[in-house]
# Entry
Amino acid sequence: MRYTEGLRDPRAARALAEGLRRELDPRRRYRIMEFCGGHTHTLCRYGIPGMLPANVELVHGPGCPVCVLPISRVDQALQLAARPEVTLCTYGDMLRVPGREGRSLAAARAGGADVRVVYSPSDALALARARPERQVVFFAVGFETTTPPTAVVVRGAAAQGLGNFSVLCNHVLTPPAIDAVLDGDAGLDGIIGPGHVCTVVGTGPLVAIAGARRVPIVVAGFEPLDLLQAIGMLVAQIEAGRSDVENAYTRSVRPEGNPKAMATVDEVMEVRPRFALRGLGELPHAGLRIRPAWAAWDAERRFELVDELVADHPACICGSILRGAKRPSDCRVFGTACTPDTPLGACMVSSEGACAAWFEYGAPR
Amino acid sequence: MCLALPARVVELHPDQVATVDLDGVRRRVSTALLEEVAVGDYVVLHVGFALTRLDVEEAEATLALFAQLAADDPAGPGGR
# Structure
């Protein structure tokens, strides 16, 4: 592909790593968090931590929507899937996420529930159109990147007068999650910013964080050279004592983001006063819900779902990993009781989870 | 979940739908989130939606920078 191949060249990777080595102070430590789970996987897959000087530490962040979704919300999906009239549609990663007592949507499906994996929310809408006798619910998860498509299908359902379609909205927002990580004990010197989130919201929300928290942020693409470049820019900022937002993903990210996508979301959804994220706890303004004007397509209202707090599996340390306080290897069930086939926690399930990355590619370095 | 890939628009259809080409694989995607889109544009795809247009000039500048770094690599062109 024209715009991916040139971003994986190992010679350029070596040159970037060498440039970084010249730039940094060997006497100090640099703790840099990649917020996105997608970044975590690129880093692990291409062995980037091993190319970096030993005093540059990469800390995995909470930017994996499947990982930060609390069990109580998985439970709501399980409640819906148990209803005989419901066809529950969701992204593939959600199927194996363990809910209460280890139950999952995959297990519900094996037990006869009508649970479908969709690639796009449009597929769920099309299913509702094709099956008017079914109540089709789209179990929506994702950060700002994934939210606009959900808003488009809610609007589409309204335009088409589809009374048998609704959305269980679990969309979450990155700024409160970044703030919560900075409040914790991760001890960060810099942050690799969420590239695809910024294609939608632009760099404005990050500018506010970098300014208030005095932490440099560099927005990065998802290819290995993108990440090496961003790490180099962060080290340069740290050395210069700056805390700016810089954009290393100029091919996709405009400072103003995508105004049409933001307007679409704003039309259909509003910020919840509080929303819980696994590992980070209940945070103000961290989640979105469907606006009352679109209540007819809101599964929470249609099915009167309750949100009841459920504890994670006692052996699982996903919460600490998502805060950047612990690493997958600190977990005593990592790779033993908890594997991608038999996950105890969401970080092992998701294609963006830190534990899944370590299991797949080995511990970095 | 935030995985998104660039693809080239090859055909526009009614109702904000386009056919894109991703390394020879063709897919129908929604362009409902873009102000305007034309055949030949590169778009960034996410869950069946074009999320933004790829800025080809910026992409070429980034590629040129990395190509220069690769050419300067002490291991040389054979060092791949």
User: Anything to note?
Assistant: The first strand of chain B starts at residue 5 and ends at 13. Residues 5-71 of chain B form a domain with the SH3 type barrels. fold (CATH 2.30.30.140). Chain B touches chain A at residues 1-6, 22-23, 30, 32-35, 42, 44, 46-49, 51-52, 54-56, 58-59, 61-63, 66-67, 69-73, 75, 77, 79-80 (CB under 8 Å). Strands of chain B lie at 5-13, 17-22, 25-30, 42-46, 49-53.
